[in-house]
Structure formats: structure tokens, C-alpha cells
Amino acid sequence: MKILIELTVNEELCRLEVEPQQTLLEVLREALHLTGTKEGCGLGDCGTCMVLIDGKPVNACLMLALDAQRHQITTIEGLDNRGGLHPLQQSFIDAGAVQCGFCTPGMILSAKALLDINPRAGKEEIKKTLSGVLCRCGSYPKVIEAVLAAGEKMKGGH
Amino acid sequence: MNPLYVGKSIPRLDGLEKVTGRAVYSVDLALPGMLHGDILRSPLPHARILEVDLSEARKVPGVKVAISGRDFPFMFGGMIKDQPFLAIDRVRYIGEPVAAVAGESELACQEALTKIRVRYEELPAVFDPRDALAEGAPLLHEGQENYTRFGPFESVPGTNICSTSTYALGNVQAGFEAADEIFTDEFYSHAVAHSPMEVHAALAQYSPDTDSYTVWSPTDGPHRRAKELSDALGIPINRIRFISMYSGGGFGGKGTLVAEGLAVAMARFSKGRPIKVVFTREAELTASQTRHAAIIRLKTGMKQDGTFTARQADIVWDKGAYASKGPDVAKRGSLTVFGPYRIPNLELVSRLVYTNKEIAGAYRGFGTIQVTWACEAQMDIIAEKLGMDPLEIRLKNCMQEEDLYINGQVMRGVGSKETLLKASQAIGWGQAKSSPNGSRRRGMGIATTLKPTVTPSDSYCLIKVSMDGSVTLLSSSVEVGAGQKTILAQIAADTIGVPLHSISVPHSDTSIAPFDFGVTSSRTTFHMGNAVRDAGGKVRRKILEWAQDVLKTDAARLNLIEGKILEEGVGERITLQALLAKIYQRGGSLLEVGHYSSAQSASLQASPDLQYMSSIFWMFATHAAEVEVDTQTGIVKVLKIAAAHDVGKAINPALCEQQIEGSVIMGLSNALLEEFKMKNGRILNDTLADYKLASMMDIPEIIPILVETGHAEGPFGAKGVGELAAAPTAPAIANAIFDAVGVRIRDLPLTPEKILKALREKK
Question: Inter-chain contact A98–B12, Cβ cutoff 8 Å?
Fold first, then answer.
């Protein structure tokens, strides 16, 4: 039994049919082809599927697509949709915060949720907030540097 | 000419794709007509398969393929051909693939799996390699001596010993007699998961018309995987095409056929429709591959002045159910148990033992992590007994430039001492301890190691210059996340004399790019880097010859820099683009092959018959750790790790730092947090909630230090870094724990329970 739903993803309204049990992650990846949102575990343990729901970080594997209606959903693909890179994306490249890249979208979105509220967030706050995203390459030290650098840029009112 | 790109922290070429989410991994790929593949796995650790009934599964709507091992009765294995694609008449570990289904949807596959009926006859199982060595132990592979072996891997028929090797130098008995003190210790290095954030995934498509397969996968060695499939299926290599995808982390775990073999088996029966196999995280943790656990017994003879007289090592490696890359881990990985030290008499016995558990395979370090754990823990036990400083005893014994390795090879580019000095200096070695009040105690520890690279091995590449001067580097060095594409492009740009942005490095496709041994053993920068130097040099010479003809001058007066041809004393004469427009008026491309083989290097010369142990380069590293131990809880907090690595020459310092920081975190995570909880062969902690990986909250301050001794045969002097990097972390932490609270943990992981128990026993 499919249900017609409407999702606002990256400021674009999408109308689509989903199974009631489908997660937001499945719908983003399979129906909307937004594969920048990754699946690392499907259980909410790894954070690679992090998206923003009304600006707050959420593991998309733990949310039903149905429940994501009437919210603003932001995926990694929505960060540079005005042309240029988001300061976080640029900082991740510049600071060498990317290795295999599989956790990178989750890291960047998690950091965006933090910096949007507090661009002055310090190292400890960054660590605490981003600890929900696991990275086996161990890019953590350079991710922290990247987020600090992006915060500096965003304080300037980006 | 000074390089413009080499030696600089150029941002990685794959950065943009990765920060925008546009980088495509195997798990992201969707092909027209694609079917989902799913696997029925063994619930038993050891059993005979009496029957697999697929009839009901085949009736599920949407299911197109349902097969068992009998339908695809081939065996594979890069070192020993001992593994079926799907279990044929026997299962040897919980999680072993027994049957496979492919269908239009994941739901259809899941339903079909529930309808497969398997009848098993359970067999006695063995989980501890020591039990597996005992007489009368249940055998996993009767008749293993009949398996095809690709290398000098000797089995012991009628036992569970998959392979065994020995090595001796000098006379250990005489060495022990000459010793003032003899140390006998047993250490245990535990199994851990690779656990990349991207699980194993692959797609495969079979063409019935040409009897050929195409496989999309993140494997670190696509040409060797193609060879393994070719050997297994009995079809020529050119009928197996591997197309590489971005790898979401491998760490050795993507260095054999895992999801690939399953996708291929199903694809054979899907009438040309592609099959996609994606492991669950549960399967990733319990049924992919692990690091080999190892029991390491060391007997070491020392003089009172802190010099070695002899070492005897006995290593038992826990193989799990199938060989994978274990035979070479047990053979080559064992050798570094003698550390980067001058030991005159030595003896080694290494045994790789089958058990009814998840397969152990290659894991970052390739055995060096396990043996370094033992070597460096014992080093501190020795220092303590002899009343020496742990740094001093290492400095006294560490190898120096032009020392002989244990096989007689002359070692060059030996940064052992420098890594010891720099790491210890950065951590503040020897400074007074500043333990806070209360129950917490601080301490420092140090550990050092060395590692060879797989030798000899070969890399080939193609460089294609299009008629507009843009350059394509075709190589099978897969981007596993360490920056392979970036480093090779840096080397190509400086070798040819073109801007970095004019070079593209597409993913490997084995039908186009020539052979490469693989992104393994930290060999890519050195080997593929040299192949790129070879091809790039040819391209450059050809362009300068053409410029000589077109400009009517002497090539010796010409230089190619950043895509412009300059003449000595004149300046810029013509751009590469304009030159090629003249050469290729009707179109064309310049194509050159690059090849590097370490086989011919004179530096490999060693004692008679021992050249197989030589390494084209040696990596050295020292980690120094500062920890704080809470004596009330046993909890260890790592405050700081200084990690000094001799990389020869950093082609891209930022990428080297990433490898060092990443390895320290992996090493710390392995040592303090990770452990499989097993019951009767079943892994109980099969989620990332229960199998803990270090998060951002767990990391200490990390000081990466690059030591650049240079290597005469490396591209721009470079060696390698990524493989070795995690090896000294665990012993450095354990040695720091001893320094802090005086307890010595010999079995990994370093859990609070063990530390508390040891503290109580000490009182």
C-alpha cells in the first residue's frame, strides 16, 4: 500500500508515493536519488545518514518518510545549491578534513546545525556535537580544525 | 628543477566531490535492470549441509535467482584456494554464506530467504587456536594439502595448521647462554573489525554472450581480484572487468573477494541483469573479515648493559575459517617481531591455525600491529628489570643506516632513531610527572616499530596526453581515502611539467588501466609513483623532441614548465596546447606506458636464498603517549600521542598527517574500546552501539611528526606511511599505563576491568 506524500527537500517540494514503513533515508536515496546521504548502519549508531530537519541534525535512518512531511529537510546536496560552496564545505577541503569521504556529509551537516546556532562554538562543543558521526579514517582532528575555521568565516555573517 | 607540487599540502582532488555528496560509492550505484541480492548465512559454526531446498524461495514474486553452493561450485582464494563462493557441503563459521537470492526488491529477497530450508548435521567446532592445535581437535579442512597454493605456504596435513613458517639466524641457544637475563612472556593481540563506514558492497553483471563479468567494487586491488576470479572460474582475465568506485574505507578489509564473489555468483544466473549486494552492518561486523588474533610467546636474552643476545618467538595466528591473506600475514608479518633492533641470534616459529570463526584477513599493518604489541611491551619489561629508561634501551638497540636486516639486506633510509628522538621530545619525555590529586595517575610510554612493504611487486600506468595538452593518468591505484589520486597527480604534474589542474585521474577500470599489484602495504606512492615518473618522463621527452623540431632549436635548451615550453635565454616559446595543435592537426593522442618493478633493485641483495625477505623500502615509526589512569575505576584517558613517522619524503604533508592521525585514532580505538564478545562462535556485539569505535570524544591531542630520511629509489625520495601507522599506538599506551600505575597488561584490549584486577593483585 503506497501513500502519496509531500516532502520539502533542499527547498524543493517533492510529491511522491512511499510505503508507510519506508525511512526518510530510503526515500532520499532511492526515490529522490540524493545519495550524498549515506547508510552506515541503519540503526542510528553511526551518523553517516545525518540530515537536517528544520535545522536540527537527525539520523535519516531512524525517521519515517511520512513523518518528515511539513518539515524543511536539508541534505548535503542542499548546501551548495546557491552556486558556491558553503563555508563548511570549503573549510573541509582546505583543512584536509576529508579522507574516504563516506562520513563527510554527516559531519558537515552536523557541524552546520551547530554553527548556525553558535558560530563561535569552541573545540569541546564541536567534539560533543559531532561525536554522533563516526569516522573510521580518523579525520576527527582535521574536522575540528575545519569547523573552527568555518565558524570564523560564518561569524562574518555568511 | 624544483617541484611545483610535490612536497606541498595540495588539497585533495576528490575533495569537492566528497564535500558535496556527489562522490559515488558502490552502495550508491544503480544500474538499469538491477536486482537486489541477499544472502542466507549459516546459523551454525561447523556443520555438514545435507540439503538446501530453494523451491519455495523461487516461487516468491519478484525473485529471479535462488542458488546454493552446488549451483556455483567454484573455489577461490588469492593465497590458498580454500574458500567456496557459497558453502558447498559444509559450513565453517556462523555467518558463512549458504544460499543467495536476487530479486526486484529487498523485501522480495527477504521473504525468499525465510523460505529456504537447509538441513544441517552439526559438527564439533573449535574456537581457540590453541584448542585447534591439540591432538584430536575437530578438523576444518581435511585434505587441505590438496588445495592450490599461490606461494610458499606450507600446510601441515591432518591438522588445522593452514600454513607454517620458521626462520633462524645465528644460534639462539648460544645467545641465551651468553645472556645475563632471560625474559619469557606471552602476549595476546585480539581480533578487531575493520569496520569502514561504508560496508562491503559490490555490483556484478554477467554477459551470457561473451561469458564475461563486469564488477563494480571498492576493492583495493582490482587486478588481483580479477586474477582471483579468473583462477576460480577458469575463464581468461580479460573476461573479468573490475570498475573501481570510491572506497568508503577499507583498511585491508576490502582486499579480497567479499561482496564481489557473492554478486558474481548470482549474476551468473540472472540472464544479464546486474546484481547489487550490500552487506548489513551486522554482516560487516560478523561475516566479512577481521584482524587476526595472535598469541605471541617471546623469549629474549639480554646483557646487563641492555644489548640483545637472542630472541625466540612462537606465534600462533587465529585464522578463522578460510585462508584469505592470512598465510602471508603469518609469514611476512611475523618477521617484524624482532623489531627495529640489532639482535644477533633469533628464531621464529609461526603457525596459522584454522578455527570456526569469522575469517581473519589483511588488516592495516599486515601482522605488524600484533607482533609490535608483543615486542614493545616486552621491551619495557626488559627496561624495567635492567633499570634502564625505555627510550634509552630503544636508542641503544635500534637499527641505523646501513645496518643489516635479519636476512642480510643492507638497510638504507633508516629513520628509526630520529623517530624515537622526535616523538619523545614532542611528548616531553623525562619531564617530571604532573599527576593531578585524587585517584588519577599520569604516565608516559613509548613504542617503536618498522615495517617492510610487499616486495617484489609491480605497478604499471598509462599517461595519455590529449591534443589540447590535457592529461589523463590511467592507473589502477584505487582511491581508498588516503589521497592516492592527488599524490599521483602531483607526481605526474611535476614530472611532465604541466599544471596540476590539467591532469585527470579517473577511477580504475581493469579493461583500460594496466596491472597494479594494489593499494596495499603502503606501496602506492613508491611503486605507482615510480611508474608515473617513468611514463611522465617519456611524455616529457617526446614533447620536448617535438618542440625541438617545431621551434628549430636544440631540445637541450628547452624546458617544459606548467604547460609552457621555455627556451634557455629566450623565455616562453610556445604553449603545450599550441605545440600539440601543430603535431595533431588531424587529431591524436600521445600515449606512454609507465612501469615500475622493485624486483630488479640491487638494494634487495641479501644472504643466499633469503632475498625473498628483503623489502624495497622500510618504514619506521615511534609513538609516545601520555595517559591518565583512574585507579578507582581503571579507566584510561589518553591525553596526548606524539607520532613520528619516517615517510622518506612527504609528497603531500597534509595527507601524511591524515594517515598518522587516523592511524593513531584507529590504534587507540582498537586498543582501548574494541573487542568482539563471543559465545560458542557467535559474535554477540554486532552493532556499532555494542562494538565501540572511537568517536570524536575519545581522541587525545595528536602530534603528527614527519621524518624525511629520503629514499634513493623512491619518487622524490618518498616511501610509504599508512600501513605501519597504527602499530606502535597500543604498546605506547600500555607502557604509559605501566608508568602511571605499575601494572602490565599483556592481553589486548586494555579494558578498565583488566587494569582494576591488576591493580588489586598488585596490592
Answer: yes
Verify whether the Cβ–Cβ distance A101 to B18 is below 8 Å: yes
In what helix (H) or strand (E) does residue B241 lie, and over which residues does it extend?
A: strand B240-244
Please give the residue of chain A at the shortest CA–CA distance from B663: A138
CA distances from B335 to A69, B166, B290, B620 (A): 60, 10, 21, 15
What distance in Å separates residue B22's CA from the closest CA in chain A?
A: 6
- Any idea which architecture B125-196+289-388 has in CATH? 2-Layer Sandwich (3.30)
B729, B623 in Cβ contact below 8 A?
A: yes
Subunit contact A102:B25, Cβ cutoff 8 A: yes
Instruction: Output the pTM of the full model.
Output: 0.97
Out of B9, B19, B664, closest to residue A104 by CB: B19
- This complex has an ipTM of 0.98
What is the DSSP track for A70-91?
Answer: TSEEE-GGGTTTTSSPPHHHHH
Q: Do B20 and A101 touch (CB under 8 A)?
A: no
Q: How many residues does chain B have?
A: 763
At what angle are helices A140-155 and A123-130 packed, to 10 degrees? 120
* Domain residue spans of chain B: 15-22+457-597, 31-123+197-249+254-287, 125-196+289-388
Pairs of CB atoms within 8 A across A/B: 159
**Number of other residues whose CB lies within 10 A of the CB of residue A156:** 8
At A2-40, the pLDDT tens digits run 999 999 999 999 999 999 999 999 999 999 999 999 999
| All domains in chain A, ordered by first residue | 3-78 (3.10.20.30), 87-155 (1.10.150.120)
For residue B483, the chain A residues in CB contact (below 8 A) are 99
- Please give the residue of chain A at the shortest CA–CA distance from B281: A41
CATH code 3.90.1170.50 for B31-123+197-249+254-287? yes
Per CATH, domain B15-22+457-597 is 3.30.365.10:
yes
B486 touches chain A (CB under 8 A): no
- Per-residue pLDDT reduced to its tens digit, A82-95: 779 999 999 999 99
Chain B residues within 8 A of A123 when measuring between CB atoms: none
